[in-house]
Amino acid sequence: MNLLEYGFNPAMLAENGDGIAARITAVHKERYELVCEYGETFGRLKASVYYGQGMEEFPTTGDFVLIKYNNSGDSIILKTLPRKSKFERNDLKGHAADFVKTVLSQVIAANFDYVFVMASLNKDFNLKRLERYLTLAWQSGAVPVIILTKADLVEDYTPQMRAVERVAAGAGVYAVSAKTGFGLDALKDYLKPRKTVVFLSSSGVGKSSLVNALAGEEIMAVKEIREDDSRGRHTTTHRQLIMMKNGVMVIDTPGMRELGLWDADAGLREAFDDVEQFFAGCRFSDCKHQTEPGCAVKAALKSGELSQERWNSYVSLRREAKFAEDRGGYLRHKEQCTKDIAKFNKARSKYGGY
Ligand code: GDP
Ligand code: ZN
Prior knowledge:
The protein is α/β, with parallel strands linked by helices. The protein is about 30% helix and about 20% strand.
């Protein structure tokens, strides 16, 4: 097996020292599935590297790593190579205290070239959600491509197409139908050997159908399964990074499903429009709804039109949302700190240590 076919860039070896290169194809609890020049293998993390002084980032599906190959058992994963793109989990369930802990090992996919951002053209079409996904896609470091699915279900998709093009910010927009094959040819530019694709979509949009249509084989289970027909149930692999016959890889990890739910700001607006509707009535447009005169929120609380409980939960979620927005900044800061520490340690060992 040649790791170049998996998109490996050998230039990475020179800078990163010993071991042979491998790509993570699935993550289990403490064990990783890998491909390397010797074929498929399992690996475990080298404890002193990964659990030592907080140095090495845990690998995730799609990561390139360096391993010490073992042909009679699990190989040892020595290092996670730098990522060119990644998705991170950002669920808001935890509180600030948990945040630092969770954020450090929550990368759910890495080193993909394209993010297929999907929305369905039928009645479920939702531009706001698409915009949220698109933002995530741009942030990942890969190239977003917008795929509008189920074109066969609408007579004229021009209005949706125009609306999407207005928010696409340079991403390509394609209408397709996995059912009829319409539009699939236009995606060929992206589906080149050695490229890795991930999909950002809500369930039911048609991701599995599209992947199967593009792959020309049943890679993912399509949800509607007739009792008398078990064909749809069979997926060819449990792997999270799948090599298709055409040489293109698809990453689909359980974590991908939750992505996009974290965008609390937009989510909040949807979930709390009964609260936010009062804001328009405040005298000042920048009203903080605290001590300002003419505050419509305070009036509504007083009259009972808005319950105190509802307002409190809005305020606390709002706070969490703000916190979430700052995560990007936090991560950059953390990365810089890690680099500085690594540099410091390197210098220390070079000059004899202490
Ligand atoms: P996923 O949840 O995004 O993976 O969506 P699936 O691929 O499982 O599809 C969800 C439903 O949409 C199934 O009933 C599919 O048959 C249907 N579907 C998917 N793609 C198309 C399409 O292009 N046209 C039509 N008419 N239905 C589709
Ligand atoms: Zn107010």
